[in-house]
Amino acid sequence: MKMPKMSLLDWQKKYGTETACAKALFHVRWPEGFYCPRCGCKKSSYITTRKMHQCSKCKYHVSLTTGTLFHSTNLPLVKWFWAIYLTAADKGGISALRLSKQIGVSWPTARNMLKKIRTAMEHRDSIYRLENIIEMDDAVVGGKRPGKRGRGAQGKKPIVVAVERRGDKAGFMAAQVAGTINKQVVREFIKYLFKPGQTVRTDAFPALNSIAETHKHDKKVTPPEQASTWLPMVHILIGNLKKFLNGTFHGVTHKYLQEYVSEFCYRFNRRFWEPELPLRLLNACLTHSPVI
Questions:
Q1: pLDDT tens readout for residues 142-152
Q2: 8 A C-beta contact, residue 200 and residue 130
Q3: Mean pLDDT of 39-63
Q4: What is the pLDDT of residues 251-277, one digit of tens each?
Q5: What are the CA-CA distances from residue 140 to residues 103, 137, 151, 225, 265 (Å)?
Q6: Alpha helices in 142-226 (DSSP H)
Q7: How far apart are CA 172 and CA 278, in angstroms?
Q8: DSSP letters for 203-248
Q9: Are 150 and 140 in contact (CB under 8 A)?
């Protein structure tokens, strides 16, 4: 869906007040006007002191944010809208520390806001499936430790990464953090993220052999010097993902790694629509259910 471009000044003009933000959320939640979730009545009165809509028939109180991504929030909507813009506007994203300074909230609050926004990103991407020729590989991410590097390294977390290959360019991608790379993890990954019967190209790592159960598995033992020829797209993506993690967040813990990986995927899959990204992300957040 084509979305308008949105600059910082455009955003300030359109969503710079609490009233404007509330109006945008109201339109998405009740596009045909108020609708009581209890009795279905379409008439209500607004209680200003409680910021609640009261159903005219059953007197049920409904908050505008109830059942949305902003459920139970004590923050003004305008801060949420600015958090969404700042997350989307820069291709490097924004850290919780920087966001807390930009919109005037505590670090834990900014951290929780970004968690919810990234969840909306992840869920929006989960509805798509990769197709045609797909490059697939695994990588490890984590802090520097002495000893073995690569697969099996201590203190690092494995990630499965896949990307469509469209001629000499990359298509859409998907990535998932895993406790370990084995056949069952690979089965689940391709089941939910690939269209059936695709051609999947890998480096012949044994754990990836389960691909052949549902797809055409094109595998080849790949020394490092041949990686740029056999699996060029996925290796570039893995390198860019690591730069994203180190550049914006200066490294991440395993606890939050999937969030950052999901954000990277969301951005990459919309890289050709970067000026539209703030409104695309806003739409994803406004239509999302609560995140605990």
A1: 755 554 555 55
A2: no
A3: 90
A4: 677 888 999 999 999 999 999 999 999
A5: 34, 11, 7, 19, 16
A6: 183-193
A7: 19
A8: ---GGGGGGGGTSEEEE----GGGHHHHSHHHHHHHHHHHHHHHHH
A9: yes
Strand extents, DSSP E, the chain: 44-47, 52-55, 61-63, 133-142, 156-166, 169-177, 199-202, 216-219
Mean pLDDT of the chain: 90
Q: What average pLDDT does range 107-124 have in this prediction?
A: 96
Could you tell me which residues are beta bridge partners of residue 62? Answer: 53
Q: What was the pLDDT predicted at 240?
A: 93
Q: How far apart are the first and last CA of the chain?
A: 28
**Phi/psi of residue 257, each to 5°?**
-60, -45
The Cα-based distances of 204 to 93, 132, 213 in angstroms read: 34, 19, 15
Residue written as token pair 């050709």 = 272
Q: Which of 54, 60, 83, 64 is nearest to 24 (CA)?
A: 64
Torsion angle defined by CA atoms of residues 38, 39, 44 and 50, in that order, rounded to the nearest 10 degrees: -20
**Dist. CA 134–CA 236, nearest whole Å:** 14
- β-strands 133-142, 156-166: how paired? antiparallel
How far, in Å, CA of 259 to CA of 118, rounded? 6
Q: What is the mean pLDDT of residues 16-24?
A: 95
